[in-house]
Amino acid sequence: MHPSKIEKLSCAVVLAFGTAATAQASDLSLPYYNWSQISSSETTFSANDPVAQVLGMEEVDVWGRIRKGFAIPDLDNPLVENHIKWYTSRPDYIERTTTRASRYLYHVVQELEKRNMPTELALLPFIESAFNPQAYSSAKAAGMWQFIPSTGRDFKLTQSAFKDERRDVLASTDAALTYLQKLYGMFGDWQLALAAYNWGEGSVQRAINKNRALGRPTDFNSLAPLMPAETRNYVPKLQAVKNLIASPAQYGIILPRVENQPYFVTIGKTRDIDIKVAAQLAELSVEEFKALNPQFNRPVIAGSAETQILLPQSNAEKFKANLAKWGHALSSWTAHKVTSARERIETIAAKFHTTPEVIREVNHIPPRTVLKAGSTILVPKIDQSSEKDIAPEVVDNARLVVEPEIPTRRIAVKVGKHDTLASIAKRYKVSEAQIKDWNKLRQDKVAGGQTLYLNVPVKSAAKKGGRQIAKKNTGTRRKASAAKTGRTKPAAVADKKQKKKRS
């Protein structure tokens, strides 16, 4: 059927049936109709024709569109039934996950169809992340498609302190489908490609080689005993979800409505803008805005020719209209690069008229840590009228490196006759730059008799004090021993000399 006629028919069905059109196609007790056997030029449908209802439902419902594109052979594996039982016993989980998925499914299905790939792959994030683009695993995998850092870099997904494209809905989907295509090209089998997506292509290839050497089959079920438990369950989980989506009524599942039209549109962004401001202009909650734009790690979106934000269609129109009337600064943040280890968070906060707590919170800096030189952080704009945006190369290469903060205590050091800044720094294991910063020195010279204040590690100071305490305690124990025997220290020494003389 011609696309324009499909659209007209779909619209007619929706208008004719109103709320009745919200039912799932698979829930209707109607025969299956093959689209290829229906001639658009010869066939017409009345509003009450059940065929029209099915056709309309199929076209306005992405779940139906996914079902029509199933192309991976079903997996006959006992673990499939186990996972079906697990999912069906948790209807709340199914509802939350499928509702969350409804934001992204249309885009994923579109991309799969462009590449002529099986549409059940659109369900893979169900297994990977429960369709949560903010998901982060113990293996440091991030995003809806759960890319680990190294694989993300292999597929050109930028990962910096300011943004992580492993969470980007568009970029990560493109990378995931490209990766899956590559794996299918390697193994010629979608089940093995999926196993490799989870376990790694090298691991799957070694398992294949091992079975081949033993004259055994190399299909998924035959290789499963060689796989770790996670991979052994991975493909059966997808098959279980596929079964649930194929026949939701059979399993007592109600799927949310997912219209067969884009949930979001793309807006080019060329200026820095705070996430809160962008959400306000789009008339969205910050939570909903982040659900579509989870790649931004900081409260500002750095503008560039490549920057894009996603918004629902109606909110995109609101965004444009409100932006045209906006009379305030779009961004309140800028970037600052830490160039020296002596640049403490407290110093940076004072320089940018804020507090250390704000710096730590906005940059996700853990407590009791300090910034290492080379780190790039967000700081408040001092001059709100400044039009200067954060450079794209700064955004793409921003790194945040921290190290544990070593507790210190402030001590006073009197400069000796032959002392230099370098010798004092070496003696107390601090840097010359730190000494200058602590004492507001403008030059590298120090004078004999001058008092300097240093922040030295408590550990080393405690160690030194510990030796003194131990020595003092030893003396106390000796006195106590002498008192117990009725001997004073001189008497004890005299006894020792007398004993030596007799021998």
How would you describe this structure to a colleague?
The protein is mostly helical and 503 residues long. It has six domains: 3-60, no CATH class; 78-251, Lysozyme; 265-325, Roll (Membrane-bound Lytic Murein Transglycosylase D, Chain A); 333-404, no CATH class; 408-457, Membrane-bound Lytic Murein Transglycosylase D, Chain A (Roll), CATH 3.10.350.10; 462-502, no CATH class. The chain is 49% helix and 9% strand. It contains 23 helices and ten strands. It has helices at residues 3-17, 50-60, 62-68, 78-88, 91-101, 105-114, 124-128, 149-154, 169-187, 190-199, 201-213, 220-223, 229-246, 275-282, 286-292, 313-325, 345-351, 356-363, 392-397, 421-427, 432-439, 458-485, 489-502; strands at 264-268, 273-274, 300-301, 308-312, 333-337, 369-371, 376-380, 402-404, 408-414, 451-457. The strands form five sheets. A two-stranded antiparallel sheet has the order 1-4. α6 packs across α9 (169-187), α10 (190-199) packs across α13 (229-246) and α14 packs across α15 (286-292). It is globular and about 85 Å long. The relative contact order is 0.07.
Q: Helices and strands in order, then pairings?
A:
Layout: H1 3-17, H2 50-60, H3 62-68, H4 78-88, H5 91-101, H6 105-114, H7 124-128, H8 149-154, H9 169-187, H10 190-199, H11 201-213, H12 220-223, H13 229-246, E1 264-268, E2 273-274, H14 275-282, H15 286-292, E3 300-301, E4 308-312, H16 313-325, E5 333-337, H17 345-351, H18 356-363, E6 369-371, E7 376-380, H19 392-397, E8 402-404, E9 408-414, H20 421-427, H21 432-439, E10 451-457, H22 458-485, H23 489-502
Antiparallel strand pairs: 1-4, 2-3, 5-7, 6-8, 9-10
Helix pairs in contact: 1-2, 2-3, 4-13, 6-9, 9-10, 10-11, 10-13, 14-15, 14-16, 17-18
